Amino acid sequence: MAVMTTLAVRNKGLRPAPMVERNYAVHRHGWIMIISGLLESLFYLFSLGVGVGALVKQIELPGGRMVDYAVFVAPAMLANAAMNAAVAETTFNVFGKLKWMKLYDGVLATPMRPRDVAAGEITWALIRGAIYSAAFLVVMAALGLTDTWWAVLAFPGSVLIGLTFSGIGMLATTYFRNWPDFDWMMAFIFVMFLFSGSFAPIENYPSWLQWAVYASPLYHGIELLRAFSLGDLSPMLLVHAAYLAVVGAVCMGFAARRLSKLLYK
Amino acid sequence: MRAGTLHAFEHWLLNYKRTWHGTLFSGFLLPVLFIVGLGMAVGGYVNGSSAIGGVDYVAFIAPGLLASTAFQISSGELTWPVFAATRWGSQYKAMQASPLSPGEILNGHLLYGLLRGVSSALFFFIVMAVFGLLQSAWAPLALLAAAATAASVIGATYAVSMSAKHESALSMVHRFAILPLTLFSAVFFPLAQLPSYIQPLAWISPVWHGVELSRAATLGVAPPWPIAAHIGVLAVWAVGGWYAARRSLLKKLKV
Amino acid sequence: MISARGLIKRYGDHTAVDGIDITVPKGQAFGFLGPNGAGKSTTMRMIGCVSPPTAGELRILGMDAATQGPAIRARLGVVPQDDTLDTELNLLENLVIYARYFGIKYKVARERARELLDFVQLSDRAESKVEALSGGMRRRLTIARSLINEPDLVMLDEPTTGLDPQARHLVWERLFRLKKRGVTLVLTTHYMDEAEQLCDRLVVMDGGKIAAEGTPRQLIETHVTREVVELRFNTEDHSAYAEKLDGAAERVEVLPDRVLLYTDDGESSVSEVHGRGLSPASVLERRATLEDVFLRLTGRTLVD
User: Fold this and answer.
1) Maximum distance among all Cα pairs of chain C, rounded to whole angstroms
2) How far apart are CA B221 and CA B242, in angstroms?
3) Is A204 at the interface with chain B, CB within 8 A?
4) Which of A74, B58, B73, C207 has minimal Cβ neighbours within 10 Å of its Cβ?
5) In sequence order, what are the residues at sequence separation of 6 or more whose Cβ sits closer than 8 angstroms to the Cβ of residue C103?
């Protein structure tokens, strides 16, 4: 009876913790995978930021300020890392558990509900992404790619990006049928990576393309993190953050509902 | 080439007929997006810079992408599918039950991997021609360079995938071999931009040699090393890789 | 513990469960029999509160299945047809993490997990991965998992399908112990011996409906006779004997390879057969079983 009352009370809110604990138990010995994920984003930073940066040297920001190219690209790589961590966790991993391992079928025979499962997986994706982002920021600071304390705000900023893309990833997963679908998703992610102002201010793009870029959540994430790491704050940042939050919340809402439909057959 | 090799090759080709649409992006669209995206963004700052030989940035990275695409597709094709063929999938079991010899099974699979990379390179080569990025009469040789790059890595990739103990080793191959080889083999910036103590690492990378040969062909300039030296390194990789692949397969089939 | 009235489940045009009524009192072992596609698993999923009924009333443990799913599931133990074990965790972790889904404290979870591994005789494999287990071991682990929340009601969907005889008997013995402890069991099976061994009461389902209900003995008495005589003749075609044997027993059923006589007195039926001048190649007298009931009610044609 005691168990019942506590559960009845808890059932009002979300219960993400058990799913997080489960994932932690699986990855407790798999830290090498997580470290390798961080290294992957550092490879991009060194190649497309530092390496290409040595060619470009300095670029002029829309406001007229000159910065090193690597300083310009680094926050975009951070945003990209946060996005990739969230997407990888909520698509590949969740899809595997949903369709192959049938893991959630077992979980749902307990008091856990589909929305608890979704919340747990998203929380786990955020934790994983936050570890990458924190480490990435430390590397950025160590390399002198940021020199302001505002850059600390890039950490919550990248968690927000993680939240948005966890929602998008979760929702996409409920629509996936098989692996070729993932290739198309990766294509979409990659197009965003190339065209969201990672490598040049989007003011350099043709104007029709600029409008398309405004729709890209990654663009808003990059603008947010870049402003923090350059110490270049403006009220526009609220718009960027709000866009990310709204897209994330809407996708999560739909994802939880669709997951219910998929699992409560 | 023996008929058995072609039979094994045909098996993978038929298999590809079922999954081809999932490879359109990585095999064909991705390199094109790279030249459009990076060319537009970075080109504005570095076009004509002496560090890249005074050419446009797109003209600089395109031949690099040609070789690295062939490399990525061929090696990617020989990671999970090779690992799976003796484990979850039963393709090799079925082939073994037929009169195919291990050598034919191996060569058929390698040939398929090679041709996947070469076909992507061919497509990208045509795109380069359309964009006006083939600036020398030697340009068709860039296709050979791309094919040689793919040929130099298929054996090694096969050997690693075949002898991998666990699936996670394959993600490691992607993250710690295929990706850094793509990013640091002078595709996006000349080797001279790397610190001098790191450069020798690129010298052993087959991708770097392939990229330099490919670039020499499309731009009509001399590669950094004598051509024979570049080809020699690629050949060592190809032959060594093939023997390693053969060993790994024989070991696996005996168990 | 369970009461269902007019329970219906439809998937599009297909009606999987077509208006069934069930009552399961506390402490009973209740079985669903039926061929594949009869609607057993769907019914189990509805009782497990992971499949909302299309229509009808379903109350479990005094609560409404439609609105109080999580609270009901907190007191259920479920052994699904496919084990749904967590293949990325070892055996002990499987149980401990499952306990956490119920909100059971970590310390309690570990203690119970150890006890339950003992109960299903898997203690020595506590640190193994699930993938290394045989089918029977997986089944036992799934049963242990279903008990982690000390449930009042345990639901088992085909608990022994695909197991070898040793593993089946071990599972039965463990289930029997649970029953003795007063746990209510609901199970589906298509093994008649399993149903006779474990179930106090049974329903036979066919085409989404309940075809019969009662104790194993009642079912035999109501739907078939006490004894069955199986006759084989030296012939390619047994159908010719239908007429010749007419009236030799309460009911005569001709199969391609033999003739069955349903009778309350096997011996007199046999002498009747001989009295009619017939000499079968073999004669087998036996007691009627649930299998006879099952085939009588659900027919002999293959369903899938």
Assistant:
1) 76
2) 31
3) yes
4) C207
5) A3, A6, A7, A10, A15, A18, A111, C74
Q: Evaluate whether B117 touches B171 at the Cβ level (below 8 Å).
A: no
Q: Is the dihedral of CA B130, B131, B135, B139 positive or negative?
A: negative
Within a 13 Å sphere around the CA of C33, how many CA atoms are in the beta-carbon half? 31
Beta strands in chain C (DSSP E): 2-11, 14-24, 29-33, 55-60, 63-64, 76-79, 153-157, 184-189, 201-206, 209-214, 227-232, 251-254, 259-263, 282-287
Indicate yes or no: CB of B42 within 8 angstroms of CB of A55.
yes
Average pLDDT rounded to a whole number, residues B34-61: 87
Please spell the DSSP secondary structure of B55-95, one letter per residue.
Answer: S-HHHHHHHHHHHHHHHHHHHHHTSHHHHHHTTTS-HHHHH
The pLDDT tens digits of the residues spanning C60-119 come to 999 999 889 999 999 999 999 888 899 889 999 999 999 999 999 999 999 999 999 998
Number of H helices, E strands in chain C: 11, 14
CB A7 within 8 A of CB A14: no
- Domain range list for chain A: 31-263
Prediction ipTM score: 0.88
Q: How far is A3 from chain B (nearest CA, A)?
A: 40
Residues ≥6 apart with Cβ < 8 Å to A157: A221, A224, A225, A228, A241
Long-range contacts (CB closer than 8 Å, 24 or more residues apart) made by C191-194: C191/C160, C191/C161, C192/C33, C192/C289, C192/C290, C192/C291, C192/C294, C194/C159, C194/C160, C194/C168
CATH class of C225-287: alpha beta
Say how many domains are in chain B.
1
Alpha helices in chain B, H assignment, sequence order: 3-19, 24, 30-46, 57-77, 80-85, 91-97, 102-130, 140-163, 168-173, 179-183, 199-204, 206-219, 227-254
Among A163, A125, A118, smallest CA distance to A15 is for A118
Residues of C in contact with A108 (CB under 8 A): 50
Q: How distant is the Cα of A148 from the closest Cα of chain B, in angstroms? A: 26
Query: Which residues does residue A122 pair with via DSSP β-bridges, in sequence order?
Result: none
* Domain range list for chain C: 2-215, 225-287
Residue A207: band (very low, low, confident or very high) from pLDDT cuts 50, 70, 90: confident
Q: Which structural domain, as residue segments, surrounds residue B55?
A: 3-254
Write phi, then psi, for C278 (nearest 5 degrees). Answer: -95, 140
d(CA B174, CA B26): 14
Beta bridge partners of C9: C17
In a 3-state reduction of DSSP, which class is residue C14?
Answer: strand
Number of neighbours of residue C33 by Cβ within 10 angstroms: 30
- Region at C56 (left for phi over 0; alpha for psi -120 to 50; beta for the rest): left
Cβ contact (<8 Å) for A51 and B184?
yes
Question: For residue C281, what are the β-bridge partners?
Answer: none
Chain B positions touching A184 (Cβ under 8 A) are 22, 25
C2-215 topology per CATH: Rossmann fold (3.40.50)
Chain A residues 160-179 within an 8 A CB cutoff of chain B:
179
CA–CA separation, C217 vs C250, rounded Å?
Answer: 19
Count contacts between A and C (CB, < 8 Å): 87
Q: Which of C262, C261, C300 is nearest to C280 (CA)?
A: C261
Kindly identify which residue of chain A lies nearest to residue B21, measuring between CA atoms: A180
Q: What is the CA radius of gyration of chain C?
A: 23
For residue C15, the tally of other CB atoms under 10 A from its CB is 17
Task: Name C31's bridge partners.
Answer: C187, C202
Q: Do B35 and B74 contact (CB within 8 A), yes or no?
A: no
